[in-house]
Amino acid sequence: MTLDTVIDLETAKLPLLHTPLPGPKAQQIVDRDTQFVSPSYTRSYPLVMKRGRGAMIEDVDGNLFLDFNAGVAVCATGHSHPKVVEAIKKQVDDFIHISGTDYYYPHLPALAEKLSELAPGDSEKRVHFGNSGAEAVEGAIKLAMYTTRRQKLIGFFGAFHGRTMGALSLTGSKARQRSGFGPQALDVTHVPYANCYRCAYNLTPETCGAQEAKGPHCARIIEDLILKTTVPPDECAAIIVEPIQGEGGYVVPPASFLHTIRQIADKHGIRVIADEVQAGMGRTGRMFASEHFDFVPDIIATAKGIASGLPLGAVIARSDLMTWQPGAHASTFGGNPVAIAASLATIELLEGELLQNCAETGQYLLDGCRNLMERHEIIGAVRGKGLMIGIELVKNRETKEPAAAERDQVEIECFHRGLIIQGCGTSTIRLSPPLVIDREQCDFALRTLDEALTAVTN
Ligand SMILES: Cc1ncc(COP(=O)(O)O)c(C=O)c1O
Fold first, then answer.
1. Are 292 and 358 in contact (CB under 8 A)?
2. Rounded mean pLDDT of the chain?
């Protein structure tokens, strides 16, 4: 039997490894990459992709992997979904580019209208298109600054908003992301996020006000301390918050955290920006993560899952806010017709059945991860919504000392068993599979995590 007859990527659902990893072809490519590609990328293990279908990846040596990362929470509809591929091919046949900054094409307003309808809040909205998450964040903060004529911003520790100079000023994730880049471009004050597992103030949801009308301390501090000391409210353009913190560790805040931010912002004419780049576009089982919390931001930045892997970012804002003049903000490629076509097909699939699958399968996976806690003392916390699930590893459940090296080792152990996962935060395993996965694939992932955790802790 040849390898080709063994592997049928179209029907495969579970991993099949034929070579030690990396295989010989993968090793050659890794070597070449090491020589020619920027060393600033952050690879954890040598996965070298050749093809993908659904949640399956075939590497260059013919090994099959189950993908529980989806290209960092991007390929929501799975790899090369036939409907997305068809939409892309049709668009490429028609035309590839003309630039929405200067000309019109039908699907640009079509996607803008769709996103406006889907985004939380009843107000009419308008949409600006860019090419990435960082660009969407840049657009969102520029819009907040433009409409308030204010310049200061408030963000959160643990947040990741991108690495372009403006977005980097907001990013409060890892020192190495800022190291070497001098003073930040923007005037941002960071405060602790609502991480109830590791409360910066040593409070609990029962003692911090989260369950009372006043709201949790970690949000109130913005008004009680920050706006009174370092950020004069009439100079503050926006508070930018991830409704579920992504790179910071898949942290789910209490709803009252977001509501209190909203109230404080309204009182002082400050814009609220939700960075939904990672949590948005169906990943949490709702189109936007904000919906889980009845949270209505003024401006939303979204990207990643919006176009099944084609580069696209969007800023969605209330129409009465998106009032900037022609020339204020645009980019040659932003809203590229092929990416827009992919996005329209993606949203159709999400609305068709993937959102529901995400919510249901996500709950099944979350329950399975919680069960793993009983077998593995190293798991300190399991949290998430939909298929955005974090498993935080600790050396000791009492002290909560992060088990960072162990987390890295679990990633590698999973890779060697054919499961693709990634870390986030200091010691959290993130599960962000394509939204097409089924229970059989969840069971494999849970078994593999179980084995990997056992291997790392014994
Ligand atoms: C919440 C959030 N915002 C912004 C970004 C930046 O997106 P990009 O890498 O497309 O620039 C990311 C990327 O991980 C993200 O998770």
1. no
2. 96
